[in-house]
Amino acid sequence: MTVPAFGLGTFRLKDQAVIDSVRDALDVGYRAIDTAQIYGNEAEVGLAIAESSVPRDDIYLTSKIWISEFKHDALLASLRTSLDKLRTDRLDLTLIHWPSPDDAVPMEEYLGALAEAKVQGLTKEIGISNFTIAQTRRAIGILGAGEIATNQVEIHPYLQNRLLVPFLQEQGIHITAYMSLAYGEVIKDPVIQAIAGRHQASAAQVALAWALQQDFAVIPSSTKRANLASNLEAASLRLTEEDLAQIAKLDRGHRLANPEGIAPAWD
Length: 267
Prior knowledge:
Blueprint: E1 8-9, H1 15-28, E2 32-34, H2 42-51, E3 60-65, H3 72-86, E4 91-96, H4 107-119, E5 123-129, H5 133-143, E6 148-154, H6 164-171, E7 175-178, H7 190-199, H8 203-212, E8 217-218, H9 225-232, H10 241-248
Helix pairs in contact: 1-2, 2-3, 3-4, 4-5, 7-8
């Protein structure tokens, strides 16, 4: 699979803010952009990419299907609408954003439709997001582990997902970590700040490097060009075993993405 290690997340970014963020990210060297139908910014992301000097073929573009579009025909139609908004003829990766709450739509139906979208050339790769161990097992049974490009889940030093992560690694399913900075909470942590001081790095770089050294992909967001450039430099930061051991102790099961009525029963 070809999911890039470093990309730009666009959650919570709207209108001109997301246009500027995508434009600046591409300008400073990002080549992967992550959006979703529910973010309400696909059109703006598409505009920023279209106006960029970076060729579309050099950009790895991800979007996610929302839970209201899980019926077979609705999923395919919604994906085509996303492509129109994004001004492209295909995505590089399409994810199921959340498992269908209470299995309102059978997993076989929406994953089957997603697989069909790949066959039709609407997306190069497919994957899942916010799937638990049990749900991922079901997905593997439907698609095969080799067809699941990634499981995109919340992971940061305060939520290290120590049951799900080894399971996905054993299955050969790539992990994409979102909310890597926990909305900025972890960069205020004194342990993270002390590690950053030792490496002459930023706290954000430390949190991102921690994820990258575990072979997770990361998709941090920012509206500031300087922060976008600084975050990208985390790829060259190498933490020591002592650093990693200290960060391991910060895990407190602090989950931020847990929408009522949508979130599954977490592992």
